[in-house]
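Quick one, tokens below. Sequence please?
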């Protein structure tokens, strides 16, 4: 029975991990598309307040985005929108990855600003020559995103699943 249960748990773990990876890939695709639209708007001379309005509009369509920040290639903030009274600082590791033209996804961590488990997700927007145009970063509500996935995972009559971060804290 123990070996059977262990095997089933491993199988469920693989399925859940696959679903999480699929969700994260979808989020990155959404952000890349939004980043292209924002970079095009910026290139057309759209003002900072108008860029903020575009970020606010994007957040209103998906409340998992707790904070969004648009940066130029040097890392200067062009626009920012947040669901809280405060915002988290720029993640220097994410900035470095993005300035090299690479996307970045942090480990899950507890945000004191948002009082929940989040991910820092950021993507660069590149031109045809693969030069960085703009950077789009977001604090993403991990707990809410995966609550339904985890809530529907039941084992036998009384078992359940939880999602934990790298330090073993329940997300």
């Amino acid at each position: 029975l123990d070996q059977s249960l262990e095997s089933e748990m491993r199988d469920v773990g693989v399925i859940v991990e696959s679903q999480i990876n699929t969700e994260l890939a979808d989020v990155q695709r959404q952000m890349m598309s939004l980043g292209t639209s924002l970079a095009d708007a910026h290139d057309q001379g759209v003002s900072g307040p108008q860029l903020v309005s575009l970020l606010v509009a994007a957040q209103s369509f998906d409340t998992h985005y707790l904070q969004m920040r648009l940066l130029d290639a040097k890392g200067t903030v062009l626009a920012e929108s947040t669901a809280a009274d405060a915002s988290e600082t720029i993640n220097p590791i994410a900035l470095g990855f993005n300035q090299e033209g690479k996307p970045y996804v942090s480990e899950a961590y507890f945000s004191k600003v948002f009082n929940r488990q989040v991910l820092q997700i950021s993507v660069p927007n590149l031109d045809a020559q693969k030069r960085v145009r703009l950077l789009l970063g977001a604090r993403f509500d991990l707990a809410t995103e995966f609550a339904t996935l985890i809530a529907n995972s039941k084992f036998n009559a009384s078992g359940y699943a939880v999602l934990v971060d790298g330090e073993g804290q329940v997300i």
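Residues 86 and 113 are 7 Å apart (CA to CA). The mean pLDDT is 85.
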